[in-house]
């Protein structure tokens, strides 16, 4: 008989890794898992119930429509607020940080940074999307009101991080700094079940993921690396395969399992890079490092970058160790 281990069971079991833990982080992770299931349900029926319209417009039933990214934002925030362990949320959907004021959450010890629905433009065409999240300890004292300064912590300060990929099946992958584990949602029992224990990213991969449409504006080092990926060389399995979904979580999830590199460099439209450091790059960098890979901005480790703004952007080179090292080498040499 195959024994199924649910996310809830796994989290409780892992609490033993933290002897002084009171279960607060475990409850917080559980709350995120609950919101993920609700968001997943909505994504699955998106094509059926006509909620794909622009925010603020009215659907045929006369109800006001919400885009799924706004819906997802509300679901995660409300799950965190009722869960009571998180006092403040920084979200891609909110310009300002959101204070959670319920009786329990205002004393919560944690803060969460989240992109509730990354790659949301892909929903209309039935392509995978994702959620990324980071959990930090609150820095302000409980006697004060938590504020933006609580979010301005380096990636190395993350207590836990993860992503959810809503794909051909829905998966939640997370780390608390002791390896990476992946759970697949079994819709028949409504639970995330451990399906990918102790995930490791291959040190060498054969996939490179980058939007080559912006090629002419890439830094010289990136152009050289792309050319390197395309050159024929039997020994290193080149040319590599190019795969780009346009949902960072989905691209990264595939590369984590198969081995590969994802790059979003500086471009003309995004001279600092497009992706957001706090809730997109840092959680994924934590996961990938914990799985044995690397994440840099071309010269510096992502997790060591100073955070000055909640919505700060960064360029990113992330994935299999030897591929990221090679790309970095080219950035040093040519950019
Ligand atoms: P979003 O947060 O507005 O959805 O943008 C983030 C997404 C990533 O998932 C993806 O890798 C990237 O934007 C794609 O951007 P581009 O179309 O410029 O390649
Ligand atoms: Mg995003």
From TrEMBL:
Cofactor detail note: Binds 2 magnesium ions per subunit.
Binding positions (Mg(2+) 1): 92, 115, 117
GO molecular function list: fructose 1,6-bisphosphate 1-phosphatase activity; magnesium ion binding
Positions that bind substrate: 118-121, 211, 244, 274
Any one Gene Ontology cellular component term annotated for this protein: cytosol
Primary localization: cytoplasm
Domain Fructose-1-6-bisphosphatase class I N-terminal: start-end pairs: 5-197
Cofactor(s) demanded: Mg(2+)
Pathway given in the UniProt record: Carbohydrate biosynthesis; gluconeogenesis; Carbohydrate biosynthesis; Calvin cycle
Compartment(s) where it occurs, according to its Swiss-Prot or TrEMBL record: Cytoplasm
Reactions catalysed: beta-D-fructose 1,6-bisphosphate + H2O = beta-D-fructose 6-phosphate + phosphate
Domain Fructose-1-6-bisphosphatase class 1 C-terminal: 201-331
InterPro entries per record: FBPase_C_dom, FBPase_class-1, FBPase_N, FBPtase, Fructose_bisphosphatase_AS
CDD domains linked to this entry: FBPase
UniProt keyword annotations, A-Z: Carbohydrate metabolism, Cytoplasm, Hydrolase, Magnesium, Metal-binding
Keyword Magnesium listed: yes
Signal peptide bounds: none
EC number annotated for this UniProt entry: 3.1.3.11
Record SUPFAM superfamilies: Carbohydrate phosphatase (SSF56655)
Record family assignment: Belongs to the FBPase class 1 family.
Protein name, entry field: Fructose-1,6-bisphosphatase class 1
Organism: Pseudopedobacter saltans (strain ATCC 51119 / DSM 12145 / JCM 21818 / CCUG 39354 / LMG 10337 / NBRC 100064 / NCIMB 13643)
